[in-house]
Amino acid sequence: DAGITQSPRHKVTETGTPVTLRCHQTENHRYMYWYRQDPGHGLRLIHYSYGVKDTDKGEVSDGYSVSRSKTEDFLLTLESATSSQTSVYFCAISVDRGNTEAFFGQGTRLTVV
Amino acid sequence: GENVEQHPSTLSVQEGDSAVIKCTYSDSASNYFPWYKQELGKRPQLIIDIRSNVGEKKDQRIAVTLNKTAKHFSLHITETQPEDSAVYFCAASTDTPKLTFGTGTRLQVTL
């Protein structure tokens, strides 16, 4: 498996609180992604990064922000968590753009109560 | 943006039979079409992919076909085994970092 680690693996938080999920890679891949997975929706892209301090929005970016201060770390922040953000979050990495294999982390199950 | 539709949402086959999952895409500029398998509680993992300059690709019991004119691609699994039971996702991408996934097909292989 590619060296990609997500933390925490599980989290329960209250509505309105900020939450930060971390993705750490040891592969030195340029591209990093955050997806959310919900029943009936598959995997939807939240944000992605194409280098240190270089990020862009995906299809479901509202309510989320990201930061990448080092090649190996990509943080996803829910600025004020809502129940609709209860989901499983996957980080992924790839050597090149979307037309190369993406390696996924183990996922983070987030519950907003 | 790109839209990927995937059918069926669930598929049950007997061990040894074949399974076919179909996807359509909307963006004619898409040129990369991967398939991911996700076992229960695990991460998605790439099982096969195809690029727009190829019509078919095989890897042992799995194959993918691409029809660019109709904008659809399919995953074929032959001689299914219980370990093939999982959720399968198709996806499509252009030369951008954005990979658009289908909604998934839950495949159950029964003995």
Summarize the structure in words.
The complex is a heterodimer of chains A (113) and B (111). Chain A has strands at residues 4-7, 10-13, 19-25, 31-38, 42-51, 54-57, 64-70, 73-78, 87-94, 103-104, 108-112. In chain A, strands 2, 4, 5, 6, 9, 10 and 11 form a 7-stranded mixed beta sheet that branches. Chain A is globular and about 35 Å long. Chain A contains no helices and 11 strands. By secondary structure, chain A is an all-beta fold. Chain A starts with a strand and ends with a strand. The mean pLDDT of chain A is 94. Chain B has strands at residues 4-7, 10-14, 19-25, 32-38, 45-51, 56-59, 62-67, 72-77, 86-93, 99-101, 105-110. In chain B, the strands form 2 sheets. In chain B, strands 2, 4, 5, 9, 10 and 11 form a 6-stranded mixed beta sheet that branches. A 5-stranded antiparallel beta sheet of chain B has the order 1-3-8-7-6, with no helix packed on it. Chain A binds chain B through residues 31, 33, 35, 40-45, 48, 50, 56, 58-59, 90, 94, 97-102, 104-107, and chain B through 1, 6, 31-32, 34, 42-46, 49, 51, 89, 91, 93-104.
